[in-house]
Design goal:
Keywords: CBS domain, Repeat. This protein folds into 4 domains: 57 residues, Winged helix-like DNA-binding domain superfamily/Winged helix DNA-binding domain (Arc Repressor Mutant, subunit A); 121 residues, HprK N-terminal domain-like (Udp-n-acetylmuramoylalanyl-d-glutamate--2,6- Diaminopimelate Ligase, Chain: A, domain 1), CATH 3.40.1390.20; 115 residues, CBS-domain (Roll); 122 residues, Thiol Ester Dehydrase, Chain A, CATH 3.10.129.10. The protein has 14 helices and 22 strands. It is of the alpha+beta class. Helix 2 crosses helix 3. The relative contact order is 0.07.
């Protein structure tokens, strides 16, 4: 039987988008305590089922698909521009496809009026009215309000009518920056993108070693999650754990308790690092405290390979730093060479430590890819020499493998301005991620 916590999450999931949700209402409808309702609502928010909006409350929203993650909801636009909702509150959960700046003549604006979009405009009532008639939400800049006619139209069509104090340029810049951040997030792979709904092979805590071997023979899976009578994950058992097992002995005697787990919202990069750090081949995936799948090392490898083949639409800070540096390979060494750009410096005009660390990581990665064409996870980095490098300085990071084995590698990276001017030295330890 599902717990009260899970019953609340299932109830919230069944509500239509736009439905109002409150702790008191949940507690009354499902006959649970307000504390239990509050915790479940917070978890639903983390899962992307609901959103809390200022002066509106908590509302059921559509769960965003991966291909639509770059879209913003109108409620998020209100938060981004610190706006006030003047009308059309029932449409705040909807997503906007694009935004249009209403700085054109009225007869020209008509060409750009598309349903589901957002019109950013000042106190031009005719443009506001026209936009709503064509199915567009309206964001009024400059702190202006709307007429009662425009407000009534927004409420009638359930199209958000928002006002903010920023000028049109600043408003557009804030929204564009938020959309750009979403494009970066779209490129990030999560466990949820890799682990799909699957028929899980599990054992109960009161089953025996004989049951384990029977399950292995039927499924071919040697790593099996172990659940208690309530269906809660309590451990995991592998072939290594069962090497000295007795057929009638309970599985609880051999399983590894409190296994390392991830959630669907854990990034693949983070999951791979935990796998290497903990030395595990499989991690159970929990959603709402329920086992929904397992993530294997093979899943991680395939995901990382797919990430490398993806065209990057939005640039991260790391992309901005590395793109200015070219890879140079010689018979003896591997290095990256480029120029210290303003984006890589501190307010004093010298190379920032974060940018320097990124360059060291990149030099080591390029070097180790020559040794073995697999991904790496940096385990430790020790900087034992550091000098300032000014903006516009041309530098190079030279990497050399000191030692490597089946699971690890040690690399020394020297960053220099000229052959005789060393800026930084670092020793880096990494582990391979391979099948």
């Amino acid at each position: 039987m599902a717990t009260k916590h899970q019953q609340i999450l299932d109830y919230i999931d069944s509500l239509p988008p736009g439905a109002q949700i409150s702790v008191r209402k949940i507690a009354r409808v499902l006959d649970v305590s307000e504390g239990t309702a509050y915790r479940a609502i917070k978890e639903a928010e983390a899962e992307g089922l609901v959103s809390t909006m200022d002066r509106i409350g908590t509302v059921r929203i559509e769960r965003k698909q991966k291909q639509q993650i770059e879209r913003l909801t109108f409620a998020e636009v209100v938060r981004i521009v610190e706006g006030t909702v003047l009308g059309g509150r029932n449409g705040l959960h909807k997503s906007l496809g694009r935004f249009v700046i209403g700085a054109m003549q009225t007869d020209v604006i008509v060409r750009y009026l598309n349903p589901g979009s957002l019109m950013i405009v000042g106190n031009r009532e005719q443009v506001q009215h026209l936009s709503l008639k064509h199915g567009m939400a309206v964001l009024i800049t400059g702190g202006f309000t709307a007429s009662s006619t425009v407000e009534r139209l927004a409420n009638e069509y359930d199209l958000p009518l928002i006002s903010c104090t920023y000028d049109t340029f600043t408003t557009a810049m804030l929204i564009n920056r938020a959309l750009y951040d979403r494009l970066i997030k779209k490129d990030i792979l999560y466990v949820d993108d890799v682990v799909r709904s699957q028929q899980l092979s599990t054992l109960r805590v009161n089953q025996t070693a004989r049951d384990y071997y029977r399950l292995v023979a039927e499924t071919g899976h040697s790593r099996v999650p172990v659940l208690d009578d309530a269906g809660k994950l309590v451990g995991i058992v592998t072939a290594r754990d069962m090497t000295e097992s007795v057929d009638d002995a309970p599985i609880a005697s051999y399983m590894t308790r409190n296994p390392v787990t991830v959630t669907p919202k854990t990034t693949i990069a983070s999951a791979s690092h935990r796998m290497v750090w903990e030395g595990v081949e499989l991690m159970p995936v929990l959603r709402n405290r329920q086992l929904v799948g397992v993530l294997t090392r093979q899943d991680v490898i395939r995901a990382l390979q797919m990430m490398n083949r993806q065209p990057q639409v939005g640039e991260t800070v790391e992309d901005v730093i590395v793109r200015e540096f070219a890879e140079v390979v010689t018979p003896d060494t591997t290095l990256i060479r480029g120029e210290v750009t303003p984006q890589m410096t501190t307010s004093g005009g010298t190379l920032a430590s974060g940018a320097l660390t990124t360059l060291i990581h990149e030099a080591a990665r390029v070097c180790l890819r020559r040794v073995r064409k697999v991904e790496i996870v940096v385990e430790n980095l020790t900087m034992y020499l550091l000098k300032p490098a000014a903006v516009d300085t041309r530098i190079e990071a030279v990497a050399q493998v000191l030692d490597f084995g089946r699971r690890y590698a040690k690399v020394e990276v020297v960053v220099r301005e000229r052959a005789d001017e060393v800026i930084a030295k670092a020793l880096l330890t990494a582990q391979w991620i391979e099948r």
